[in-house]
Structures are given as structure tokens and as C-alpha cells.
Amino acid sequence: MNTVRNRKYEIRGLRIVDCGIADYREVLQKQHELHEKRRLGEIPNTVLIVEHPPVITLGARQNANKLLVSRKELAARQIDVVDIRRGGGATAHNPGQLVFYPILHLEELRLGISEYMRELEAIGIELLRELAVHAQRQEAFPGLWVSQCCSAGTPEGKQRETRKIASIGVRVSKGVTYHGMAINIQNDLSIFDLVVPCGLDGVEMTSVLKETGRCHSMSQIKEDLGRLLMKHFSNMAQGPEDRRQRTEDSSPSSVLRPPSSTRKLPPWLHRPLPASDAFRQTEKVLSELSLHTICNNANCPNQGECWSRGTATVLILGNVCTRNCKFCSVATGKPSPPDPTEPRRIAEMASQLNLKYLVITSVNRDDLPDGGAAHFCRCIQKVRRQCPDMKFEILTPDFHNCQREALQILQGALPFVFAHNVETVPSLYPVARAGGGYQRSLNLLKMAKGYCGDVVTKSSIMLGLGEADAEVEQVLKDLRSMGCDRITIGQYLKPSKDALDVVEYVMPAKFDFWRQKAIELGFSWVISSPFARSSYCAEQAAAL
């Protein structure tokens, strides 16, 4: 199997296998093999836990298999389509969706098919409850649903707005189960726009992320699922009455995990307070010239270190952004027009601090026809006239509707390192970077190579928002396929109370792993550490 990991453990006659992210067809073949072995008594009851790359599956109920686009178009989008023999109709899988396939001998568990289906639903209800989502069964519609009251304007107009969060499609052959259940945790729900889910016209799909606005560690959720699977299926001596009481118990016995923002900061993420003369001088110059920095506006944890080295990342075009990315603390609203004095003030700052390398970034300016490219150009040209030996790095927005025009304008300010951050894995864009587009960002980095000659390109990604390892590796591969030369990989830290919670504090050793992986993939310059940020130690690459 093509998996990120294939971890197994067994307790009281139930084996759990975590397959990581794995191809659907390979996992299907594995199910068939395990089904036969379980039927013959060669293995214990087994459950495969997995995430799948994008795939649409069509069930045995033909009238419920409704594709909304052609198979040819799906193939062009690199979405596999697989015809299978489980119950139900069309559904879809992609990373961030939790899927589990029980291979169970029902007679040994003293379960009928209907009881087994209720066990699956009970597991899903308990798991979702721990993730702060209240899910219910719906009569005659297998799976789990989330509903809330909505009003049509009068008390009498109140009704239930119902969304589907989990799908079940099982098959039982010779007393042994296969196929199973899929729960939407933080997957990209747009894949369901390509089918009629389960053949139910008008059904709306939802996820834990959509319901709560919170990302979670998929590895932690898989561990929690394993615990619930053990609770429901590992004790084969349990009688039907005991099982029914456990399955139907709806008391809130599970304690919700607190938001990770309340966790104690691990020791490797503590920073000393800035106190050096160089820090105070940098602070004084920036204040006197009324310049914005991303250091201040994004509450960067490296501000003390960088300012003590006499360097800062200048934030141009104001400090009000036209977007509202949930990982960022920069203010959102209607920005002011570009300040024509800003290029002169930046040049004066560079001169007073005796800088040799200057990083310039900006807020998103979707209100400007060129996205702010001309202002980038003016700032570079003004600084270059006053400091001829200055080297530049620009960290740009994605120039949403004007990429070609913006790059043509920026040609007038070469040379520079061209940086644009993808920030996170594509499955987390809907919550972390709703105004952005993963492919749009990749396209910009690729186009920069074409429009700006031999320009060095650079990007950055944050860890700790709930991404899977396979997703991180794919982002690195995607960046290299676009010719991206440099990469920084750092820990996401919640910059303000309204920002996304941290899902995981990634160990320093894991950053070392990603550094080595990035080097193996061909990046020429890599910084991978908990405190790495896009412009962190950027001046160290000036000699490359």
C-alpha cells in the first residue's frame, strides 16, 4: 500500500491499522484480502483507518450514482472514479476526511446487520461529540446529520436545516463486513459538488471544520477513533443488551478536548524579551519614519531577534488588508490609497540602519488594479538610488486578478528574490486562507520565472494547523514542480485571540526531517525550524 504510515496495534481481539493517506484502489484490494483471511479465521477482527487522495466511488444502488460532470473531466482533474459493490450511491473522499473500514465477523460479535450499522453510527456520534459537533441519525437515511433551527421570518416559519457530515456504505459477505464509514473532518467539501451525494438531491454536505471553524490533528482524531472502535468492537463476550445500552447512551460522558491555544507553550518555543541597543535603535528609526513592519502587525515571534540584528521586514501599502485570513492578525477593512512618501521613508530607513538586504512585503490590495505592484516597484527603485548596493527580496500577495500585469510591472525593479507564500496545505485553505487559492499561488511562482528571467523564487508554509504529513510533502513537491528555489517551514503560533487555534506544536526533530526532505527534493536554500518565517534570516541567503 502506498501509505504515509501503516501502524498496527491489537487489543482484546481487535486489530487497528492506521494506513495514513492511501490510494483507494489499493485499500479496496487490501479489504478483499483481509475479508477472505477473516472468513477463514486466519486474522482477528480488523479495522483499516485511512485518508484517501481525491476519489469518487459509485455504490451498488445504480439509481443513486449521479455524477454531475463527465468521467473525462474528473480524470482531467485527477479525481479517480471507482465502481464498487457496497451499499448506497455515489460519494467522495479526499484528505481531511476520516474513513474506516471494519473487517468484522458479525456472528462472533453477536451482531445483526442493522445492529452493526447502529454501532457505526454510534461511534461517529461519540467521535463528533468530542469534536464539539452534535450529530444525529436520520430515519431511513444511513449516516450522520447535523441540524439547527432556522427561521423564515416568523416563529411559525422555524424549520430544521439539515446537513450531512458522515456517510455509511457497507457490504457483508459470508458473515464478514467490509467497506465502512466516512466522516468529514476538515476536507475540501467542493468535491461533493461533482456528485449528488448518496443520490439525495439537494443534500448539503458539511464537516467539523465548517461547523466549528476549528482544525484538528488528524493523527489525534485517528487515535480517538481507535479508542472508540476498541470500546464498541473489541469485547466479543459482551451481550446484546449491554451493547444496546452502550450504543444508545447519549449522555455527554466524553469531555471535549480544550482548544490547543490553552496548552502550555513547549520549552522550545520560548523567546527572551528584546533588550539590546540595536533593537532599540531599529525601533526608534521605524517609529520616527512612521513605517509599518510585518514584525509588529503580524506579532512575529522573531521581532526581538531580527531587530537586534538591525533588520526588519517593511510592510508597504498600509496596514489594513482587503482579506481576512484566519491565521493572520493584520487588520482587515478598507485601506487608504498608497502613500507617495512611503518609498522615500523606506530609503531613509535603509540608509540609517545601514542595511545590505531589504525584505519588502505588503497587505493584500485587491482594491488596486495592479494589486500594488507599481508601489513595490517605486519603493525598490527609490531605495536603490539611495543605497546602490542594496539587495532586495519582495514578498508579494497573489495579485488575484492581475498576475500577468503585476509581473510585467515588477520587471522594472529587477533584480530581487521573488517570494510568495502558499502558507498551508490546500485542504486547509477554506478556513485558513479563504480569500486565497492554492493553485493560484503556485501559478504566480511559476509565472514569476517566466516574466522575471532568472529570478530566485521562494515560498513558505506553516505547520501545526492540522495538516497531514503527506499533504506537507505534496506541497513541497508542488512548489518544486513550479521551479520554486527556496523554502521556509515554521510553526504556526496564534497571533491574536481571534485567529485560528494551534492544533499541534511540532517537535524540533520533525522540522529537521522536513529540512532534509526539502533538500532531497532540490530546494537550494531551506530554513525549517519552529521559529522560521518567510523572511527569517533572509539576508543570510544574499551571497547565494
> At the third CATH level, what is the topology name of the largest domain?
TIM Barrel
Query: Would you tell me the overall average pLDDT?
Result: 83
Q: Give the distance, in angstroms, between the N- and C-terminal Cα atoms.
A: 41 Å
Strand content: 15-25%
Strand order within the widest sheet?
1-2-3-7-11-10-9-8
Quick one: overall form? elongated
Structural class: alpha/beta
Extended strand count: 21
Structure description:
The protein is an alpha/beta fold and 544 residues long. It has two domains: 7-256, Bira Bifunctional Protein, Domain 2 (BirA Bifunctional Protein, domain 2, 2-Layer Sandwich), CATH 3.30.930.10; 276-541, Alpha-Beta Barrel (TIM Barrel), CATH 3.20.20. It contains 17 helices and 21 strands. An eight-stranded mixed sheet has the order 1-2-3-7-11-10-9-8, with helices on both faces. The protein is elongated.
Short description:
This protein is an alpha/beta fold. It folds into two domains: 7-256, Bira Bifunctional Protein, Domain 2 (BirA Bifunctional Protein, domain 2, 2-Layer Sandwich), CATH 3.30.930.10; 276-541, TIM Barrel (Alpha-Beta Barrel).
Topology of this structure?
Layout: E1 7-11, E2 14-21, H1 24-39, E3 45-51, E4 55-58, H2 71-76, E5 80-83, E6 91-93, E7 97-103, H3 106-109, H4 113-130, E8 136-138, E9 141-150, E10 159-173, E11 176-184, H5 208-212, H6 218-233, H7 240-248, H8 277-288, E12 292-293, H9 294-297, H10 303-308, E13 313-316, E14 320-321, E15 331-332, H11 342-352, E16 357-362, H12 373-386, E17 391-395, H13 403-410, E18 417-419, H14 429-432, H15 438-451, E19 457-463, H16 469-481, E20 486-491, H17 508-521, E21 525-528
Parallel strand pairs: 2-3, 4-5, 13-16, 14-15, 16-17, 17-18, 18-19, 19-20, 20-21
Antiparallel strand pairs: 1-2, 3-7, 4-6, 7-11, 8-9, 9-10, 10-11, 12-13
